[in-house]
Design goal:
Radius of gyration of chain B: 62 Å
Shape of chain A: extended
Number of strands of chain B: 20
Number of helices of chain B: 7
Radius of gyration of chain A: 20 Å
Largest sheet of chain B: 4 strands, antiparallel
Strand order of the largest sheet of chain B: 1-2-6-5
Oligomer: heterodimer
Order of helices and strands of chain A: HHHHHH
Structural class of chain A: mainly alpha
Distance between the termini of chain A: 48 Å
Helix content of chain A: 55-70%
Strand content of chain A: under 5%
Structural class of chain B: alpha+beta
Largest sheet of chain A: none
CATH class of the domain at 138-233 in chain B: Mainly Beta
C-alpha cells in the first residue's frame, strides 16, 4: 500500500526533530574554576611525571616514524575543552597500540583519564577505550 | 488498512520517543549483576579516610563502622563512582581493623555504599581529597646549637618525594619533660627550633611529630604520631656563658663611654693644650709684619695733611735737657690744666704727647713739631692736649734728640698752651691710666735706647 510507506517516511522528519541533539560529549556549564583547581593540584603533577618518563622514550618513540598522527595533539583556539578531549582520547587509543613500556602506558592512561574526568568529557568510543 | 497504518505510526513514534527520552538506565557493578544502589543518601555510620599515593600510583581508602552492625548480618562496603548514568562499584576488602580498597582515580566524585542482607544498598557521597590522611613522619633528629642555645629538631615525611602532598602539609611537634605535659609547636617546614632558655638544664625531653594537609586543596585528619625521640639538655655551663656574655656587654658599653669621653676632651682641649704641645706654631713672618704694620683704628688721624693738624701744637725743639732736671721741674706743676692748646713752634725737642680719652680708648697722637725756645720746658703730666672736651687723661713720653738741649727759664709764663720741656735724657715716662700707643706699640714695651733702635723679630714672637 503506497500510503503505508508514505506514512512511515513522513515520520522520519518528525523523528529527526524530536531526537535529542547531543553534539557535544562533554558536560555543559561554565566550570572553569573547578577545572583549574583540579588541574593545579592533581593533573599537573601527573602530566609532569609523564613528561619525565617520556623523555626516556623520546628517540624510541619518534625514530623512523612518520608524524602522521601528530595533528591529533594540536589545540584549537576557542575550543580548548574540545581539543583537550580529543587529545586525551587520541592518547588513549594511540599508545594502546604501540609497544611501549607498561609504566609509560600506565601513566599516559592516567593522564588521559584524568583529563577526561576533569573536563567531564567522554570519548566517542567510550567504554572500550576507557 | 488505513487504521493499521495509523496505529503503526503512532506506536513507532511512541517507541522512538520512549527510547530517546529514557535512554539507558540501571547500573552495572563490578560483579556484573546489573544491579545498582538507589541514590538513597542514608547516613550510615562509617568513618573513612584516604591515603594518596599509598603504593606507587595507587591511593588507598580505609573505612570503619562507627557503630558496629549486628553480627548476624553480613555487610559489605563498596566504593562506587558514577559514569554516565550508571555506577561502577568496587567492593572493599574486609580485614580485622576495617575495610580497605586501592584505587587510582581521585578526581571523580565517589560514593561509599553499604550492602547488607536486610537492607537495600545505601550510599553516601565521598570526596577523596577532603579525607586525606598523610603518612607518618619519621627520622627525628635533634641537634644542640651551643652558640645560640637552641635545639634544632629535624624530621622527614614520605610525601617529600611524592606528587600531591609535597609542600602541602603542616607539621606539629610535641615535646615534654619526663612524664610531664605535652607542649606543641606547629610549622609548615620540616624543622623546628626549641629555645634553651625555655627548657630546664640537664633534663631529659621527649619529642614526637605528626602531619596534616594544610587545607588549601587537600583536607583531612592528623596522621599518626611518629616514634618518640629523647634528648638531654645541656648543663649549667651555658649559664656561665651567659654571665661571660653579660660581662662582655658591660665592658663594651664602658669602653664605648670611655671613648666618647676621650673624644669630648680632645675636642675641648685641642686648641689650647694639645695642638700647641703636639704641633707648636712656628713664627709667621707675615703675621708678624702685619702686627707691626697694624693699621690704626678708625678714629685715629693718620693723615699727613698739615691742615688736619690744626689742633696740634707744634713746638719747636731747640734743646734737650736731662731727664732729672725735667723731673724736678715737673713736680710743682703736676696739676692738671684744662687750657686750650696753643700752637707753638720752634725747638728741636720733639715731644710726643699721648692723649687718651678715658671714655674712648682710641688714641690721638700728635707729633709735636718744634718747640719755641721761649716756651717753658714743662712736662705736663696730666694736662689736656686735645680739642675734644671731656676728661682726657694724657701721658707724655719723649723721644729727644741728643744733639740739642733746650734752655729752660724758670720764670717763663706758662701759657695756656701745653708746653713740653725738652729732656736731657730721653726716657720713658710712666704711663698713666690706660694709655695705649698705636704708633709705636713696641716702644712702650721696653726702654728705647740707641742700642735698641732696631726691633728684632724675636720681640714680636711674644706679641703673637
Amino acid at each position: 500500500n503506497p500510503a503505508f510507506f508514505r506514512t512511515i517516511f513522513w515520520v522520519l522528519p518528525l523523528l529527526l526533530v524530536l531526537c535529542p541533539v547531543n553534539s557535544s560529549s562533554c558536560a555543559m556549564g561554565n566550570r572553569t574554576t573547578e577545572i583549574r583547581v583540579k588541574y593545579e593540584n592533581i593533573l599537573s603533577h601527573d602530566i609532569n611525571e609523564l613528561v619525565n618518563v617520556s623523555a626516556e622514550y623520546r628517540d624510541k618513540c619518534c625514530k623512523n616514524k612518520k608524524h602522521e598522527n601528530s595533528k591529533v595533539f594540536f589545540c584549537n583556539d576557542t575550543q580548548e575543552i574540545e581539543s583537550l578531549q580529543s587529545m586525551a582520547c587520541n592518547m588513549l587509543k594511540f599508545f594502546h597500540k604501540q609497544k611501549i613500556s607498561k609504566n609509560f602506558r600506565w601513566k599516559a592512561a592516567l593522564v588521559s583519564c584524568g583529563t577526561l574526568q576533569v573536563l567531564q568529557c567522554k570519548c566517542e568510543r567510550n567504554k572500550k577505550e576507557k | 488498512m488505513l487504521r493499521m497504518t495509523q496505529t503503526s505510526t503512532v506506536l513507532s513514534v511512541f517507541a522512538l520517543l520512549l527510547h530517546t527520552t529514557f535512554g539507558e538506565s540501571g547500573c552495572s557493578s563490578a560483579d556484573g549483576d546489573g544491579t545498582c544502589g538507589d541514590d538513597e543518601s542514608d547516613n550510615f555510620d562509617v568513618d573513612c579516610f584516604s591515603q594518596l599515593e599509598f603504593q606507587s600510583s595507587y591511593s588507598r581508602l580505609t573505612c570503619n563502622f562507627t557503630e558496629l552492625p549486628p553480627h548476624d548480618t553480613n555487610h559489605t562496603l563498596a566504593l562506587c563512582s558514577k559514569e554516565d548514568r550508571s555506577y561502577v562499584c568496587f567492593n572493599m576488602e574486609k580485614q580485622e581493623d576495617g575495610y580497605f580498597l586501592q584505587f587510582t582515580d581521585i578526581l571523580s566524585n565517589k560514593y561509599v555504599c553499604m550492602d547488607s542482607e536486610m537492607k537495600k544498598r545505601m550510599c553516601r557521597s565521598l570526596v577523596v581529597t577532603d579525607i586525606v590522611k598523610p603518612e607518618v613522619p619519621f627520622g627525628i633528629n635533634i641537634t644542640y646549637q651551643k652558640e645560640a642555645n637552641e635545639y634544632l629538631i629535624r624530621y622527614s615525611t614520605p610525601h617529600s618525594w611524592k606528587k600531591y602532598l609535597k609542600d602541602r602539609l603542616r607539621h606539629q611537634v610535641a615535646y615534654r619533660q619526663e612524664e610531664g605535659t605535652w607542649k606543641t609547636i606547629e610549622s609548615p617546614f620540616l624543622q623546628v627550633k626549641l629555645l634553651g632558655k625555655n627548657l630546664k638544664n640537664d633534663a631529659s625531653y621527649e619529642v614526637k611529630v605528626r602531619s596534616q594537609p594544610n587545607g588549601d586543596y587537600f583536607k583531612g585528619p592528623w596522621s599518626e604520631w611518629s616514634t618518640s625521640e629523647s634528648f638531654r639538655t645541656a648543663r649549667e655551663q651555658h649559664s656561665t656563658e651567659s654571665y661571660s656574655s653579660m660581662a662582655m656587654v658591660v665592658l663594651s658599653i664602658l669602653g664605648f663611654m670611655f671613648s666618647i669621653v676621650m673624644i669630648v676632651l680632645m675636642i675641648t682641649f685641642w686648641d689650647n693644650r694639645i695642638k700647641p704641645a703636639v704641633w707648636p706654631n712656628l713664627p709667621d713672618h707675615k703675621k708678624t709684619l702685619e702686627q707691626l704694620c697694624k693699621k690704626p683704628k678708625n678714629n685715629f688721624d693718620i693723615s699727613f695733611n698739615p691742615e688736619s693738624f690744626g689742633y696740634v701744637h707744634i713746638h719747636k725743639v731747640e734743646g734737650i735737657r736731662s731727664k732729672a732736671e725735667l723731673e724736678n721741674f715737673l713736680q710743682p706743676s703736676t696739676a692738671p690744666e684744662t687750657n686750650l692748646p696753643e700752637k707753638l713752634s720752634g725747638s728741636d725737642l720733639k715731644m710726643i704727647s699721648v692723649l687718651t680719652d678715658k671714655s674712648n680708648p682710641n688714641m690721638s697722637v700728635a707729633y709735636g713739631g718744634i718747640w719755641p725756645a721761649e716756651t717753658q720746658c714743662r712736662l705736663l703730666g696730666t694736662s689736656q692736649f686735645a680739642v675734644t672736651e671731656g676728661n682726657l687723661g694724657s701721658s707724655t713720653y719723649e723721644v729727644c734728640h741728643r744733639n740739642r738741649v733746650p734752655q729752660c727759664n724758670d720764670d717763663s709764663n706758662l701759657s695756656s698752651a701745653h708746653s713740653l720741656d725738652p729732656l736731657g735724657q730721653p726716657g720713658p715716662e710712666p704711663l698713666n691710666g690706660d694709655t695705649v700707643s698705636q704708633t709705636l706699640p713696641t716702644s712702650e714695651m721696653r726702654s728705647p735706647s740707641n742700642e735698641d733702635a732696631y726691633v728684632t723679630m724675636s720681640s714680636f714672637y711674644k706679641i703673637q
